Amino acid sequence: MEQRIAVIGAGTMGSGIAHVAALHGYQVYMIDEKPGVVQTARVRIHQRLDREVEKGRLTPSEREAVMDRLIEATWDHVADAELAIEAVLEIMEVKKAVFQTLDRVLGPEAVLATNTSSLSITEIATTTRRPQNVVGLHFFNPAPVMKLVEIVRGEETSDDTVQRVQTFATSINKEAVVVQKDTPGFIVNRVLMPLFIEAMRIYEEGIASKEDIDKAIKLGLNHPMGPLTLADLTGLDVDLNVMDYLFQEFHDDRFAAPMVLRRLVRAGKLGRKTGKGFYNYDGV
Ligand code: 3HC
Fold first, then answer.
1. Active-site residue flag, 138
2. How far is the CA of 51 from the centre of ligand 1 (A)?
3. Pocket test for ligand 1, best of 145, 172, 241 (most atoms within 8 A of CB)
4. CATH number of this structure's domain 190-271, picked from the four choices 2.170.190.11, 3.40.50.300, 1.10.760.10, 1.10.1040.10
5. Which CATH superfamily groups domain 4-179?
6. CB pairs under 8 A, 24+ apart, for 252-256?
7. pLDDT in tens, 6-17
8. 56 CB less than 6 Å from ligand 1?
9. Residue 117 CB less than 6 A away from ligand 1
10. 0.90 cut: is pTM over it?
């Protein structure tokens, strides 16, 4: 079983993945090209672990052991990682550059996984000399809490690679599903984006208030949060990127982003991160 993993990108998803892996005993190399981002992520993880200590689920010494396993690293330090999980910006060229570097610095047996929420695993894999070791490993926000990971096969992903990430997922107490064909949005986002889009259209058309749209889905479908609140949590910029990509790939209006979403993103109102997302928006 893998013992050392590298997590590339220490934003919301990267830090959540690092958190859950360290909690389950992995030594985690954390890399982010922006100075200070890994330190900020470590502070946030420490705060989360403090709450676990307060609730009596962790002892202070266990918390310190988890923190000790979270290592701020550079590319020079990660050569012995058996698994790398990339969680950088959802932009193909940015991901490809990371995979090229991972391919160069990690041992030949290492698995290279991407947390992409929609992009093609096969295309990302083309930048490496080991496409059989490249796989999608899609976590959900907040990663420490959400049970699911989607394992996504690229055209050349080997069974052994799928098996290794399945074992990894089980070892960090996640449930995995395997997406057998590399298709945009995989399972969850292919279903979730039309839900967001339809909720936003209902709002745009003046059919119901944001509060009532969310309440309807929460209570009518037993979802933990309404779609407009959830769209803010996942980040409106991320949502728009995913919708645009799905629209481009499927040529289908099911995935056409509502104008209200595009306007909010252009205005820098990105949801959770700024506190100024869809839910705090009053116009149409
Ligand atoms: N990190 C770690 N733990 C967190 C957390 C975070 N960011 N946010 C909440 N938690 C923990 C809390 O500590 C609490 O733990 P406890 O029950 O063990 O004490 C637990 O989660 C519940 O949190 P709260 O009591 O604060 O609030 P809620 O009960 O309302 O739960 C929620 C919050 C877990 C976010 C819940 O509302 C939920 O499940 N919402 C839906 C989330 C969802 O659908 N995510 C998927 C988004 S799609 C996606 O990510 C794909 C991407 O590609 C777009």
1. yes
2. 14
3. 145
4. 1.10.1040.10
5. NAD(P)-binding Rossmann-like Domain (3.40.50.720)
6. 254/194, 254/197, 255/193, 255/194, 255/197, 256/197
7. 999 999 999 999
8. no
9. yes
10. yes
- Alpha carbon nearest to ligand 1 atom 53, residue: 117
d(CA 176, ligand 1 centre) in Å: 18
Ligand 1 centroid distance, CA of 49 (Å): 15
Q: What is the largest CA-CA distance in the chain?
A: 56
Task: Name the residue ranges covered by the structural domains of the chain.
Answer: 4-179, 190-271
Of ligand 1's atoms, which has the minimum distance to the CA of residue 117? 53
Task: Please provide the size of the chain in residues.
Answer: 284
Place of tokens 């000399």: 129
Classified as helix, coil or strand, 263 is helix
State the pLDDT at residue 277.
Answer: 79
Q: Indicate if the pLDDT at residue 1 is higher than 60.
A: no
Among 82, 86, 90, 150, the one annotated catalytic: 150
> Hey, what amino acid is at 207?
I
Q: Which residues pair with 112 in a beta bridge?
A: 84, 134
75-100: pLDDT as tens digits: 998 999 999 999 999 889 999 999 99
Q: Do domains 4-179 and 190-271 have the same CATH topology?
A: no
